Structure formats: structure tokens, C-alpha cells
Amino acid sequence: MSRSKEIRFFIFINVFSSMLLWLVAICDGKLTTGLKRLIHDKFVLEGYDKRIRPVEHQGYTLELDVSLYFSGINSLDDVKGIFSSSGYVVLQWFDSYLTWRPENYGNITEMYLPQNDIWKPDLALKNGLKSFREMGGAFYYLYVEHTGLVIWWPFQVFETKCHIDITYFPFDRQTCNITLTIWTHTIYEVNISKSNQGLNFYEFYPNSVWEITSTSYHVNTVSDESEVTFTFNLRRKPGFYILNLILPIFFLGSLNLVVFVIPTQSEEKIPFSITLFLSFAVFLNILDSTLPENSENTSCLCVYLVIELTIAVFILVISAIQVRIYHRNSATHLSGFQRRLVNLSRRITCYSSRWYSISHDTDATNRENKGPVEKTKARPEQETEWTSLCTAIDILVFYAVLVVQILVIIILAIIINVNR
What's 43's DSSP letter? Predict the structure, then answer.
């Protein structure tokens, strides 16, 4: 008896499973049939035409919701002023010709259609560098709801123009825009409305050179055309340029002072000055190749390099004059101005010498006695009046160049910090 009950139970389970599978198959068949019938009704019977703006009355305005999901910065070309970025645009609108009752089509509430099969807005990249191209592609599908809501999210690589201000390079900040506009229709036909989603980040990857500090999103109307602008405020990461450009330039600038440590009688003074001058010229050439050719603004770093280059020229001229002075006839005496330079250098360095004193009284005594006056200490043979003048010039110009360089660095640092 119990075995017969088990057999009847297994038979019931098999019959129930078969009926359930049959019902699922019937339902699936209805869904497929309903979708085919829906597409047939809309595109064959009702004659859907993608060339006609999908509003109930052609005097009505179609509201277009545009938002951007930003993926990252590909590059920002300083020289060419090209801002390359990636992301996908989300466009939403209501198509009055693609509405239906789900209960009439097997409870179908949504479907996906190829983007070239229905009407879509002629949205174009306004500030792009290339000719206008259609967004998306033939393999893109649009999401359509029974209420008429259509959602389209084409992925794009944007290459837009971006004005580069190099004044505070490499501590500069740039502002770049992505502007999308309706190319053909006026605002009375297709109007971009303020989106609740606006500008968002999706699978964002950071850039090694630029950091996004803030973003904004606004809709404009320009000459009866509707457009939306996504703004990105960028800050350059200066670490690479500090190590490879700024510090070498500053160290090279400090070598300008070393020229005055080298004695005039040394044959390496002028070659060393020429080497410094050529080094600054090389760095200026490197910087010019890095920055855009822009006459509207000049980099503070370029200004500093030009100042250092000018100082190097000045030092080269002074070194040449010192060599000329050093080889003058030792029988020729210093003028009053030259004596004052020597005495001033000795006061600056707090240096005093018993064996050598240059004054008007000594010269007067020499002229009256018509002979040399005995000194308290004999003068070394290697030091002459002209050698002392060369040493005085080294000391005075050393401190003058040092003060100028410190002032230039402080002024540039203040300007950069204030404007950052």
C-alpha cells in the first residue's frame, strides 16, 4: 500500500513539473510574440518615421536631459592646447510615438532598439578639434520604456580646445570645458534642460600630471541654440618639474656667485662664466619647447631664466674687465674712485691690513718727498694695487648679485603664492 502511494506521488511531481515548464514556455512565447507585435505595430502599422521630431504637435518643444559620466583625463597638451578626456553622455527624452499599453503586448514595459532606428537629437561637440561626428555607433542600443522615455548613453573620447595660461608654470591651474550643443534645432524645437544628474564620475582613473580640483555644470542659450557646458578646474602636479627643472635652474643660478670666488689670475674664470651662460641658454631652450608659443602671458620661470641669463652676461663682462685690470702696468696708480672701491670692499669684509693702506695722505707724502714712504710692514710681492682692485670688484659684485638673486626669488615666490 505504501509503495503505491510513493508511485502516485512521483507521478504527481512529474505531471506538475511538466505543467510548470509548459506554462513558462507559453508565457515566454507570449512575451516574444508581444514584442514582435509591438515593433510591427509601431514601425509598420503606425509608420514610425525617425525623421520627424517625436512630439504630439510640432509646435511643442522637446525637452532633452543631458548629463556626463566622466571617466578620466587622457592628456592635456600644453603646447597645442588640446584637452583629451573620456566618458559617456547620458541623454533622456520622451518620444510621443513610442508609447504603448503593456497589457496589450504581453506586459512588455521596455525594449531596446538600435540607435539608427528611431529619432535622436543632433547633439554635437561644439569646442572640438575635429569635424562633427555622430555620437555612438551602429551597434549602440537605446532603452525605451512604455511611457515614451528614451535613454541613450554613447561613450565618447572628447578632444576639445583649452586655453592654457602658463604664467605660473609649473604651479599653474587650468580650466577646460566640454561643450555640447544642438546643432540644427533651435531652443523652440529641442531644448537642453537642467539635469538632476549633471556631472558625475564613473570608473574614474586619475591622471599623473593633472588633478581635478572642482567641476561645474551649466546650461546656456546662445543665438537660439541650446548648449550644455561641463567645466573642469585642473591643477598641475609640480613634483616632476621641481626635481627635473626648477631645482637644477636654482642650483645653476647659485653658481653665478662662484665666479667671484675664482681669483682673477686664474685662467678658468672667463671659461667658467661662458659655461654658465651657455647652460642657462640650454635650460631656456628646454623650457621654450615645453611651453606653448603664447604672446599673451609669459611664464614666471621664463622670466627668472632671462634674469639669470642677464646676470650671467653681466658677470662675463665684469670678468673680462677684471682680467684687463689685472694685467695693467703696476707702475700706474689707482684713481680716487678705485681706491674707494677697495676701501669699501674691506669695510664690507671687515678686513684690515697694516702693511697696505691706500689713502690720499700717502699719495700726498709720496709727492712731497718724491720717494716711497716706509711702511710698517713690507707688501708681499704678488699683491699689487690692481690685484687689490680685482679682489674688491669680486667682493662687491658677489654681494650685489647675491642680493639681486634673493630679491628675485622672493618676489617670484610671493607672486606665485598670491595668485595660486
Answer: I
206-241: string of b/e by CB count within 10 Å (b at 16+)?
A: ebebbebeeeebeeeeeeebbbbbbebebebebeeb
Q: Using only C-alpha atoms, what is the Rg of the chain?
A: 41
Q: What distance in Å separates the CA atoms of residue 245 and residue 247, rounded to the nearest whole number?
A: 6
- Closest of 74, 69, 75, 66 to residue 87, by C-alpha: 69
pLDDT digit string (tens) for 23-80?
Answer: 444 444 446 788 889 999 988 888 899 999 999 888 899 999 999 999 999 999 888 8
Q: Which helix (H) or strand (E) holds 157?
A: strand 155-161
Cell output for 255:
653658481
pTM of full prediction above 0.90: no
The H-assigned helical ranges of 139-182 are none
Sign of the dihedral through C-alpha 292, 298, 301, 306: positive
Residue 264 amino acid letter: T
Q: If you write DSSP's letter for every residue of 221-252 in order, what string do you get?
A: EETTEEEEEEEEEEEE--HHHIIIIIHHHHHH
All residues at 6 or more sequence positions from 236 whose CB lies less than 8 Å from its CB, including other chains: 169, 170, 171, 172, 173, 174, 209, 210, 211
Dist. CA 330–CA 146, nearest whole Å: 107
Q: DSSP per residue over 68-135, as a string?
A: EEEEEEEEEETTTTEEEEEEEEEEEEE-TTS---GGGGTT--EEEEETTSS----EEETTBSS----S
Determine contact, residues 81/163, Cβ cutoff 8 Å: yes
CB 358 within 8 A of CB 343: yes
Residue 142 CA to residue 151 CA, distance in Å, equals 6
In angstroms, the CA 376 to CA 322 distance is: 29
| Residue 335: pLDDT over 60 | yes
Cβ burial of 277 (10 Å; 0-12, 13-18, 19+) is middle
